[in-house]
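Reviewer 2 asked us to include a model.

Predict the structure of this chain.
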Amino acid sequence: MVQILEKSLYEPVLIEESKDIREIREVLEEILYVPDARVRHYIINGLCNYIQSKFADPEYKLKVFIAYQGIEVLGFVISQIDPNYTSYGRKCGTFGWLYANSLETCKNLIKHCEAFMKENKVRKLRGPINFPKNIGGLGFQTEGFEEQMLYGVSTFNKDAKVLTYLEELGYKKESEYTCVHVAQKEWDKGRKIDSDIIFRYFSLKELYGYAEE
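Predicted model (structure tokens):
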């Protein structure tokens, strides 16, 4: 009797932690989206220097996870616990520079970030927060892709589905911000409030709810 074993057409997807700056740089060169090609090289250099400086500090908690299928890169994320970053006064972990080619890849990368938080007894994980802010930024850009790059705003390919993946994994939008280009050099200050501006104050119940966070 002969048993025939079918070989899978696909190699398994592996999530690997990397401390090799050369490997990290090669991955970033392959997958990092930057809308302005002129600054892409400087962003990758700056990010690699930043990661290397954190690796050199034994007290700083930062991990880089890469998703591979064979030699193909399917995903990338940096997770860290910055002692100066808090949420409502409490320690908060972050993930950033997230790239994932599918929901399953995103799920596996985020699971590793969440496990890293649990190892360090951190209860909250927020992202994407791409440290350092001067070359990375916060959140997702959702509009204005035809404009110049915005300082402090994470730049993501408008066709990427990472935001959708995170929402499917249970992550919720926390805040919305708007950037405005001011073309007028001078204007009258604060003498009159536009009629379409509404001031709203939190109720005591809402304030108590935020205090619990």
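Confidence is low (pLDDT under 50) at residues 1-8. The domain at 13-176 is CATH 3.40.630.30 (Aminopeptidase). We have added this to the supplementary material.
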